[in-house]
Structures are given as structure tokens and as C-alpha cells.
DNA sequence: CTTGGAATTGAACGCGCGTGCAGATACCAC
DNA sequence: GTGGTATCTGCACGCGCGTTCAATTCCAAG
């Protein structure tokens, strides 16, 4: 079995993952059948169980991989010097990354309730770890007297919600370029937290 | 039949609506069966069809009623004088209303894809009408030189996303009171748009 | 060319789904 | 009490679901 041998270790087959991601994002986890995913891959339904123990684990794999992806890419992002630059880097990164991974981002906050409690807790922890990255920046700026934020946790949630919201309306080739959007959001965020 | 006679006109039975709202919000539209809703009401599944033509229309009724509710309550909200006061009123209203109607708000942006295109268009139009209320405030302030917003449409989406995000983390009896949350968000929003 | 394990099929399982409908029941005007 | 109508039950229908598994096909190593 592919699951126990091969060089993929415990990674779900790429073609299966891609199909599942696309369909889950478009129609919702509960509305997509294993047969539909299989058809997209060009295989019979039973063959999917060579790559995942069950449907729910397939969803978890997608969310887990996405969160790992977010965290590792943020870790590798240049952050400049000081809280101001770091905040700007975060805003730019979050918007850019969310737009290039729109389906995964969408899944990650729409389908959490379809995870088992154990899997949910894992994703939740990764999400919190990401939020903590932003909160640390705000705390630094607050300590340095650059930012005036009454509650860093609230400000963190507010900023992330605002940034993630870009996914709901931004369309490639629309009125505003991605660069322009990033710039405007940076201005708004900077003013919202500045001392 | 209740649907064709009675004083309810075409309004779905209140008990059915309440049960559907609660279950759809908790488990998702696709994951809730008509039998579960019926059980919650204390009735057999077939009886639900006295109140709704089908499952999808039940969802639409909930979303439509919510959007009407939002718009009529905002219309009745005192808005003070001038863009600054109006913006504060909007922020306060949106947070307060979203928190008291958490389930409906959640449904309204999670289950849009389960509507028929016609129903979707109706809800979308109401949503845009609501967004236009905020955008008009920003435009007024911009024209008056009170606000400095490069793009009122973008700012509208950013602010609404930020405010609606409160629903994802706020818990009654938590660290921050509702009044305090409203106050902090008002400060952030005001600073984000102020000239 | 043989062989053996990996990959996949195809059929089957039990189940719950949304919905329809004939018949039973509850309720209210007379 | 009787009649009629609003309400609801109980069952049925066809269907697609997630998942399993024996049987088959594929393919590289010997």
C-alpha cells in the first residue's frame, strides 16, 4: 500500500489532495462525495483509501498542510527592523499569502467544525501560533511606545479578520492591483495602531 | 395548510425557523437533515413541508429574514450628527447586532453557497445595501475632509470584516465586556480612517 | 518469461437522505 | 354533536453516501 511504503511517507497523494482541496473549497466538505473526488482524480472511489484512512482525515491533511505552510513561509519572510517594519511585513505577507492560497484559506476557516475534536485542537493550536506572531509584534511596538493598543489580543484578532477579509472581495484583474491593496491596508493598519 | 392560509402569510413557522437556525449554525446546512430539524421541533419530518416547500427555501427564509432584520434595525438606529458620529454609530450597531444574532450572522456568510442562484442574488443585494450604508458614511466624511480614505469601497469591506470578526472570538463573560470591545473597535476604526 | 507485491477495480453493505402522500387526528364554528 | 378543515403521522420511494474487500491488473526485479 502507498500509505505504508513509498517515499511519500504519510503524505496523501498530491493529485488526491489537489482534487479534494478544489472540491471542498467550492462545494463544502459535507457536500462533496468521495466518488466526486475520485472522478476528479480519474480513479474509482475505493482507490482513495490507499491514500487516506477516511474522508475526515483527508480534510485534516489539507488544513494541517496549509497551516504548516503559513507558519513556515512567515518564518522565512524578511521582517525588516523594528515593530513598524515587522507590522508592515506581516500585513503584506498575510494578504499576499491568502490571495495565492485562496482555496486553502477559505477551507481553513469554513470547515473546522468537520474535524474531530483532536484534529480540531491541532489546527487551532497552529492558528493560535500564527496569531501569536502578530501579537508579539504589537507587544513589541507597545513596549517601545510606537504603538498605542489598549488590548493586543483584540487588536490581533481585529487585524487578522480585516486582512483575511480581502479574500471575500478581491478578484484578480479587478479595479485595484494586489500591490495597491496591500499598500492601502498597510496604511489603515498602521494608523489604527499607531501611538 | 399553514402556508396558504393563516395570519403568517408566507412566513415559516417560528418553531421550525428557530430549530433550523440553531442546527444549521451548529452543524452546517448540508450536515443537518430534515429529520433532525423535525425532531428538534417535536414533529415528524413530513410536517415540515407544511411550512417550507423544501430544505433550501428554509435556509433562504432564515438568511432573508436576517438581512431584513439588519437593515431595518440599522435604519432605526440613532446616528447622531455628522460622519464621525455616524461612523461610531455604525461600529457600535454592527458589533452589538452581530453579537446578539450570532447564529444568523454566522449562517449568513457560511451558507451562501447552498442557495440557488436566484436566492443568492437576493441575499447578495441586501448585503450590498448594508455595505452601502457604511460606504455612504465614509464618502460623506471624505467629502467633508474629516476622513482620509483612498478607496471607500475597500475601506468599507475592511471595516466590516474587522467588525464581524468579533463573532469568532468574543464570548459572553470573557475578559472584555461588550461595551469595552465596542469602545476599542471604535477607536481603531476612527484612527484608521481619520484625516 | 516468471513472479510477487503494489495499485486499482467493481460490486456490495447498510444506512440515512429529501420528499410525497394517503390516512389519521385535533380543533373550531355551528 | 357534527362537519369541515388545518395539522400531522407513518410509511414509502429512489438514491447516493462512506467504506470494505475479493478479485484483477499493472509493473519492475530476477
UniProtKB/TrEMBL annotation, chains A, B:
- The answer, when asked if DNA-binding is one of the entry's keywords, is yes
Gene3D superfamilies membership: Tetracycline Repressor, domain 2
Keyword field contains Cell wall biogenesis/degradation: no
DNA-binding region(s) from the entry: 33-52
Question: Which intervals hold domain HTH tetR-type?
Answer: 10-70
- One Gene Ontology molecular-function label: DNA-binding transcription factor activity
Tell me the keywords, alphabetical order: DNA-binding
Q: Which InterPro entries does the UniProt record give?
A: Homeodomain-like_sf, HTH-type_TetR-like_transc_reg, HTH_TetR, KstR2_TetR_C, Tet_transcr_reg_TetR-rel_C_sf
The domain of life for this entry's organism is Bacteria
Which SUPFAM superfamilies has this protein been placed in? Homeodomain-like, Tetracyclin repressor-like, C-terminal domain
Spell out the PANTHER family in the cross-references. Answer: HTH-TYPE TRANSCRIPTIONAL REGULATOR RUTR, TRANSCRIPTIONAL REPRESSOR MCE3R
Q: What protein name is recorded for this chain?
A: TetR family transcriptional regulator
Q: Which organism is it from?
A: Frigidibacter albus
Amino acid at each position: 500500500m502507498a500509505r505504508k511504503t513509498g517515499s511519500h511517507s504519510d503524505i496523501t497523494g498530491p493529485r488526491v489532495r489537489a482534487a479534494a482541496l478544489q472540491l471542498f473549497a467550492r462545494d463544502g466538505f459535507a457536500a462533496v462525495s468521495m466518488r466526486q473526488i475520485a472522478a476528479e482524480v480519474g480513479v474509482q472511489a475505493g482507490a482513495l483509501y490507499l491514500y487516506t484512512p477516511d474522508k475526515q482525515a483527508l480534510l485534516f491533511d489539507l488544513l494541517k498542510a496549509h497551516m504548516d505552510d503559513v507558519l513556515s513561509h512567515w518564518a522565512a519572510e524578511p521582517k525588516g527592523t523594528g515593530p513598524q517594519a515587522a507590522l508592515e511585513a506581516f500585513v503584506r505577507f498575510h494578504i499576499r499569502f491568502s490571495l495565492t492560497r485562496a482555496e486553502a484559506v477559505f477551507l481553513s476557516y469554513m470547515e473546522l467544525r468537520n474535524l474531530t475534536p483532536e484534529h480540531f485542537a491541532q489546527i487551532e493550536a497552529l492558528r493560535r501560533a500564527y496569531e501569536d506572531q502578530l501579537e508579539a509584534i504589537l507587544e513589541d511596538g507597545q513596549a517601545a511606545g510606537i504603538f498605542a493598543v489598549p488590548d493586543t489580543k483584540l487588536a490581533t484578532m481585529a487585524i487578522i479578520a480585516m486582512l483575511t477579509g480581502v479574500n471575500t472581495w478581491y478578484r484578480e484583474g479587478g479595479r485595484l492591483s494586489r500591490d495597491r491593496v496591500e499598500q492601502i491596508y498597510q496604511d489603515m493598519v498602521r494608523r489604527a495602531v499607531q501611538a
